[in-house]
Every structure is written in structure tokens, then in C-alpha cells.
Specification:
It contains three helices and three strands; from the N terminus they run H-E-E-H-E-H. It is α+β, with helices and mostly antiparallel strands. Helices cover 38% and strands 12% of the residues. A three-stranded antiparallel sheet has the order 1-2-3. The chain has a single domain, classed as Factor Xa Inhibitor (Irregular). The longest helix is centred in the last third of the chain and has 11 residues.
């Protein structure tokens, strides 16, 4: 049986922390930054937690084992 491959798109967008939590980038950070406040841009720069309803799907995409 061949090994499962990690989803290439998912591995670029999500990462697991040491405790196993999932992190992702915030949305709205790539353009039209001049009218967003510095406070908002700082907040968006920090990684976001992946919502619980999405976590199961993201874990499956990142899985490399059976």
C-alpha cells in the first residue's frame, strides 16, 4: 500500500504547534494596507487559531501516515 502524501496546499498554509494546535495566517493581509490602521495590521500579522469545526479537515490534509 503506498504512503499518503501531505496536501501541498495545506502544508504551505497551516502548521502544528508543539502542543498539537493548528495555526494559520489571517485573511486580509496582502493588499490595501495603507488604509488599515497599524494596530489592525499588527493583529493580523500574528498567526490565527484554526477554528474547531475546520481542525479535523486540516489535520487530515496534513496527515502523512495511514
Amino acid at each position: 500500500m503506498p504512503k499518503m502524501k501531505t496536501h501541498s496546499g495545506a502544508k504551505k498554509r497551516f502548521h502544528k504547534t508543539a502542543r498539537g494546535r493548528l495555526r494559520a495566517r489571517h485573511a486580509f493581509t496582502s493588499h490595501m494596507l495603507e488604509h488599515k490602521s497599524p494596530k489592525r495590521k499588527r493583529r493580523l500579522a500574528r498567526p490565527a487559531k484554526v477554528a474547531g469545526v475546520d481542525a479535523k479537515r486540516v489535520r487530515r490534509l496534513l496527515r502523512t501516515g495511514p
